[in-house]
Design goal:
This protein has about 475 residues and is of the alpha/beta class. Helices cover about 40% and strands about 10% of the residues.
Length: about 475
């Protein structure tokens, strides 16, 4: 890239992103019920434990630790944290609401008023600094009761519980929140249904059928929420949220190219087509046929999908993916929810996630070419080990380099003609990692003194990247 100065749109929404279950803590305070994240163990065993068939959704403190129970105590420290966001100059803050704070079991008729009041206080604090909230309605924390009693999103009844929950939020916060996202990284559900759909697959044979049926229920629920949101808050903007992973063929072998195309369409485009275009893509028919998947689609569902399309597309971007039709175990790389093979042209993070800024430019162009809808990058960042120096400084130049290169890629995409609304790097303050439950996998501009073993003062400290990002925002991306 030769261009060094980029023209980000006036009013571009610079900010940061978090999720309730990863930073709030206070997991049983003020009437909050248990949710999925509360029973997920911490440490590198997390994904292995919850991915095995038959996960029992119970807490076993003799075997595991549960860092999400305490998070970074945002529940009590939100004023301090929001003041730091404001000091950086945030225009927006992407956050989520914990469903089980509002409806502890998920199926109640009346909400928990203390839960509603907490988010009232958060939104009021954001407003004090003119920070626009972007709220994810469901972010990997379905109420535990809806899992154990209903089977998660496999059960169509969960649609009505979600609609009631979303409608309650719209009515209560209609004067405080304009931007909403329905489901976090909805397309990741087929790879990790426990996170997105709230069920543990009984076997590999049933996983696909149950996952795609659960996704259909979420599509209907999302469409109902979009319709309700537009009616209750006419000026609202409601988006879908995809984990976007551009997929490259390992080489020019047509078989690998075709395989990469099929993988990309199914992962990147399937959910987007339904939520943005309002209909199932044609390529799904063959996939369903070849995998013996039959969706139970009720009368009126397809019409509802057409009526409840989203206003914009939000996405997380961490890496690209390289695919090869016949890959050996040694060739498989690590990644966010999905793998692929190692790309010889890319370096990787401490956790094996390949770093590919150009992939972000590619992905933004692909999405905008396909949908012609505004795009919003609501997650992007580098999980890394940070060292506190003897003088208290944290010199995370590696994070600055990573973010700079991705912001440059965004600038190039805007020059390409992509309509980009904003950018909220993930984990703007250190929090519990979703994939590993670790605190040592740090993303933030703000260091939080909490360690993997639970020790620490929880004191907040500005990293070098804090001051760098503040200048990026001040100059609207001109000084990187």
């Amino acid at each position: 890239m030769t261009q060094t100065t980029y023209n980000f749109p006036k009013g571009f929404l610079w900010g940061g992103a978090t999720a309730a279950n990863q930073l709030e803590g206070a997991y049983l305070e003020d009437g909050k019920g248990m949710n999925l994240a509360d029973v997920m163990p911490g440490g590198k065993v997390r994904l292995k434990v919850i991915s095995e068939p038959g996960f029992d959704f119970k807490i076993d403190k003799e075997k595991y630790v549960y860092p999400n129970h305490d998070g970074i105590d945002f529940y009590h420290r939100y004023k301090e944290d929001i003041a730091l966001f404001a000091e950086m100059g945030f225009k927006t803050y992407r956050m989520s609401i914990a469903w089980s704070r509002i409806f502890p079991n998920g199926d109640e008729s009346e909400p928990n008023e203390k839960g509603l009041a907490f988010y009232d206080r958060v939104f009021d604090e954001l407003k004090k600094y003119d920070i626009e909230p972007v709220v994810t309605i469901s972010h990997y924390e379905i109420p535990l009761h809806l899992i154990t009693e209903y089977g998660g999103w496999r059960n169509r009844k969960v649609i009505e519980f979600f609609e009631h929950y979303a409608t309650t939020l719209f009515k209560h916060y209609k004067n405080k929140v304009k931007y909403w996202l329905t489901f976090n990284e909805i397309n990741g559900a087929t790879h990790m249904p426990i996170l997105g759909l709230g069920f543990s697959p009984e076997s590999e044979e049933t996983k696909l059928q149950d996952s795609f049926q659960g996704l259909h229920h979420q599509f209907v629920a999302s469409a109902l929420a979009v319709k309700a949101g537009h009616e209750i808050i006419p000026e609202s903007q409601i988006g879908c949220m995809l984990v976007y992973v551009p997929t490259y063929s390992y080489d020019s072998n047509p078989e690998n190219v075709m395989h990469a195309l099929q993988e990309e369409r199914l992962f990147n485009n399937y959910c987007g087509d339904v939520q943005v275009r309002g209909e199932y893509p044609a390529f799904a028919n063959r996939f369903f046929k070849e995998n013996d998947i039959t969706l139970d689609i009720k009368e009126g569902d397809l019409e509802l999908l057409k009526e409840g399309t989203v206003d914009f597309i939000s996405l997380s971007y961490y890496m690209s993916r390289t695919e090869k039709k016949n890959k050996t175990p040694e060739e498989i790389g690590q990644g966010n929810l999905i793998g692929g093979v190692k790309n010889p042209f890319l370096n990787a993070s401490d956790w094996g996630w390949e770093i590919d800024p150009t992939g972000l430019r590619i992905g933004l162009n692909q999405l905008y070419d396909r949908y012609q809808k505004p795009l919003f990058i609501v997650e992007n960042g580098l999980g890394a080990y940070d060292k506190v120096e003897e003088d208290g400084s944290i010199n995370d130049d590696y994070r600055i380099d990573y973010l700079r290169e991705h912001i440059q890629a965004m600038g190039e995409a805007i020059e390409d003609g992509v309509e980009l609304m904003g950018y909220t790097p993930w984990g703007c303050i250190d929090l519990v990692s979703a994939s590993t439950g670790e605190m040592s996998k740090r993303y933030g501009f703000i260091y939080v003194d909490k360690q993997d073993d639970g020790t620490g003062t929880l004191d907040r400290k500005k990293k070098k990247s804090f001051h760098w990002y503040k200048e990026v925002i001040e100059t609207n991306g001109k000084k990187l």
